[in-house]
Specification:
The chain is of the alpha+beta class. The chain has 2 domains: 98 residues, Threonyl-tRNA Synthetase, Chain A, domain 2, CATH 3.30.980.10; 50 residues, no CATH class. The protein is built from 5 helices and 4 strands, in the order H-H-E-E-H-H-H-E-E. Strands 1-2-4-3 form a 4-stranded antiparallel beta sheet, covered by helices on one side. The protein is elongated. The two termini are 12 Å apart.
Length: 174
């Protein structure tokens, strides 16, 4: 009889593979940043893998992603959390937006200004801690035992170098 896998909120919102690839992306970028301190990169994950927007040799990315996968599989789940993740920005902007919407309900203009300012400060204050929680429980999944790196290739995209890391699901023996 096949065991049923429990579905969690993050899987429902983002999909298991996307969350796993997001964790692997963070771990890879962290290791690349340690090896190349001047690295200026951004990245995006999807169900097929992730893309790093930077001019980095594919061999460096392959080494970093292989090590990242190995370390995540060994239990170093903190590598899945990145301080500069877009999730942090999204959380902060969401709080600012909610504060601004509340400001629109105020009858006095002075109250509106104060509410917008308070919402902005709150958004800045909670972005990283709440964003980290969102990464940990919703947008990343460091359990990557059932994936492997299929390929790493570099190409130009609108005049900018990108590195595409493709992953695939592997069968885990019982």
């Amino acid at each position: 009889m096949k065991a049923r896998r429990q579905v969690d909120t993050g899987d429902m919102l983002f999909g298991r593979r996307t969350r796993q690839n997001h964790a692997l992306e963070h771990a890879t970028v962290t290791l690349l940043s340690q090896a190349l301190p001047e690295l200026n990169a951004s990245a995006r994950s999807n169900a097929r893998g992730f893309i790093i927007f930077a001019n980095v040799p594919p061999g460096e990315v392959r080494r970093a992603s292989d090590e990242a996968l190995r370390r995540l599989q060994a239990g170093e789940s903190e590598l899945a959390i990145h301080p500069n993740c877009g999730t942090n920005l999204a959380v902060g902007l969401s709080v600012v937006m909610v504060g601004s919407l509340f400001a629109l309900t105020a009858l006095r203009p002075r109250t509106r200004v104060v509410t917008v300012a308070a919402g902005s400060v709150a958004g800045f204050a909670v972005a990283r801690p709440v964003g980290t929680l969102m990464q940990r429980y919703v947008t990343t999944l460091p359990d990557v035992h059932d994936i492997r790196i299929r390929s790493v290739r570099r190409r130009r995209f609108f005049g900018r170098w990108v590195i595409e890391v493709q992953t695939e699901t592997v069968s885990i023996a019982d």
